[in-house]
Amino acid sequence: MGARILVIDDNAANLELMLYLLRAFGHAVVGKVDGIEGLKAARADDYDLILSDVLMPGMDGYELARRLTSDGHSGRLVAVTALAMVGDRDRMLAAGFDAYISKPIDPETFIMQIDELLPADRRSRKAGA
After folding, report:
1. pTM for the whole thing?
2. What's the CA gap between 68 and 15, in Å, rounded?
3. Which domain holds residue 76?
4. How many CA atoms lie within 13 A of 109 on its CB side?
5. pLDDT tens digits, 76-117
6. CATH no. for residue 93?
C-alpha cells in the first residue's frame, strides 16, 4: 500500500509533476497551492509525508513547518526547494523540516528519494521495477 502524501507548492508545473510521479508509483496524494491551504489540509487529515516548497507567498514553508511542529504533526515533513546557500539546510531543519529535496526535482530519482523517507510498508509499489 502506498503512502498518503500532501504536496504543497505554489508553482503549478512543480506541483503537477510531483503529483503525477507520486500517483504513478501508487501513492495517494493531495496537492495544495500555498502554505495556508496546505496547513488546513495537514490539520484536517493524517499524512505519512508532507512535501512543501519553502518560498511561497503568504505563509512560507518555514512558517508552515513551525506551525505543524507546534501542532505535534507526526508524519515526516520535507522541504522541496531550490535554496542551496550555506545555512539553508540548518535553517530548514531548525524550522521543523525532517529533510529536504533539491529543486529542480529529477524525475529519475525523485521516487527513490521519497521511498527513503517512508516506512517500508508505505513505499512505492513500482519502485525498482
Report:
1. 0.91
2. 20
3. 4-113
4. 7
5. 999 998 876 667 788 888 888 999 898 899 998 999 999 999
6. 3.40.50.2300
Query: Residue 24 and residue 95: Cα distance in Å, rounded?
Result: 31
Q: Which long-range contacts (CB under 8 A, 24 or more apart) does 25-31 make?
A: 25/111, 25/124, 25/125, 25/126, 25/127, 26/1, 26/2, 26/124, 26/125, 26/126, 27/2, 27/3, 27/114, 27/124, 28/2, 28/3, 28/4, 29/4, 29/5, 30/4, 30/5, 30/6, 31/6, 31/7
Of 101, 105, 88, nearest to 51 by C-alpha is: 101
Phi, psi of 70 (to 5 degrees): -70, -25
Residue 125 DSSP label: S
Residue 65 lies in a domain: yes
CB 76 within 8 A of CB 84: no
Confidence band of 129 (pLDDT split at 50, 70, 90): very low
* Tens of pLDDT, residues 45-81: 999 999 999 999 999 999 999 999 999 887 899 999 8
